[in-house]
Fold this protein.
Amino acid sequence: MLVEIKVPVLAESVPDATLLEWRKKAGEQVERGENLIDLETDKVTLEVVAPDSGVLVEIRKQAGETALSHDVLAVIDTAASAVAPPTAAALQPAATVPAAQAAARTGPAARKLMAEQGLAPAEVPSSREDGRITKGDVLAQAARPAAAPVAAAATPVTTMPPALLDAGARPEERVAMTRLRKRTAERLLQAQQQAAMLTTFNEVNMQALMDLRGRYKDDFEKRHGVKLGFMSFFVKAAVEALKRFPVVNASVDGDDIIYHGYFDIGVAVGSERGLVVPVLRNAELMSFADIERQIAEFGKRARDGKLTLQELTGGTFTISNGGIFGSLVSTPIINPPQSAILGMHKIQDRPIAERGQVVIRPMMYLALSYDHRIIDGREAVQCLDTMRQCLEDPGRLLLGV
């Protein structure tokens, strides 16, 4: 029976997807549930798995092409058997150039390069009909992945031919942007071009928060099965501040301001594909353990490329933590259509005045970027200061004061 492999249903905000490399070739056996190809969208990478076991008899869309929801990508024949691959002998060319003949037809530049690369003439296939080995043939062979080394081998293998690593060399590589990177660039430009963006700064003394975390982190992990980090406190502090200043949690739609009666907090997470922002839905209803558990799950699935479109859609406010990469201070860019974003930064011991004395305390700069079209400076500054107060005195988060 022939079974079609189709593009899964995409979200309304994702019109199409780009096919990445096929993991199977036509004629190969596939197993039910096996990932055959990844689809890259503006937000996530989706896996397309085999619906049944059988033979991949036809591939209708190739890597790099664009596909829509329900498009047929390939066809599986569940009743067919895979054809045995040809033997190594069958793959050998009909005629080869003897080593002595190849050496005789090798120019001095190519011979010198082969000596530098440790290659014999017989190891370098010629691109010319007369069998002559050129310098380009040697470079091409040197650039091919080497076979797995034996256990005794200890010489490191470079990814670029040594000839290209000589002093004064100026190598370049052109790589196409991923869809995620292009979409991120579009949204950042949109935010800067369409919003009147301004950033206000403050700093928070992390001593009380660090003491509290140090006192209870072991009990917290035993009780809830997840580590107690700082992000749950920042999410709680943000929610408390947004309740007091609803316009910071609002968004602009044309000439209207939409006030959200809920708090969906996006948490920026780094992945190999770039920055993604999964959303904590109704963060005001979540406990500290719920937040830490969900963020840990987001981080793991972001690294594995398993986040869903629904988890990356929406959000009324975003928190970005550049401090984990060492950033001391920055001006984060708003994530449209949101109107504000909080930037966390590196915790650094600094001297401050406390009760008339100069003391060393763990300090963190906070940055709140906001859309000045709907948020006044007074509201932005007070909102950020409310967050600071909640973080410096975590008891406020429990008492709601």
